[in-house]
Amino acid sequence: MKKITILICAAIIVLIAAFTSRAHFKCGIYGMIDPADGAKRVWAINGRDSFQAIPVSGKFSVEVKPGTWKVSVEAVDAGKNTSVDNVLVVESQFTDVGVIKLP
User: Fold this and answer.
1) CA-CA distance, 35 to 75, in Å (whole number)?
2) Are strands 39-46 and 67-75 parallel, antiparallel or unpaired?
3) CA-to-CA distance for 44 and 64, rounded, in angstroms?
4) What is the DSSP-derived secondary structure letter of residue 56?
5) Which CATH number is 26-101 given?
6) Does residue 35 have a cis bond before it (omega within 30 degrees)?
7) Rounded to 5 degrees, what are φ and ψ at 7?
8) In this structure, are residues 71 and 84 in contact, taking their beta carbons and an 8 Å threshold?
9) Whole-structure pTM value
10) pLDDT tens digits, 66-96
11) Is the predicted pLDDT of residue 19 greater than 80, yes or no?
12) Residue 50 CA to chain centroid, in angstroms?
């Protein structure tokens, strides 16, 4: 009975460690919009996955999975929407897309 209890406790500790350590390996995309008040929303798109962020003072950050993403900026003036293709995101790093200038 003691061996089973020890094995169950060990399994629980391993599971807890796996899930809590994963939080330290976040990755994503960040950048700025110019002009700062020109965007309503920023989208990160990869196949069927999409995540959004609302820029604050022109700055945005969105947590995504590793992969190649398209960053699409939804401008206040719909005629000024723009995007950046092929943004590479790797595990446990945030990718800086720099300043995205709206047309």
Assistant:
1) 10
2) antiparallel
3) 8
4) B
5) 2.60.40.10
6) yes
7) -65, -40
8) yes
9) 0.75
10) 999 999 999 999 899 999 999 999 999 999 9
11) no
12) 10
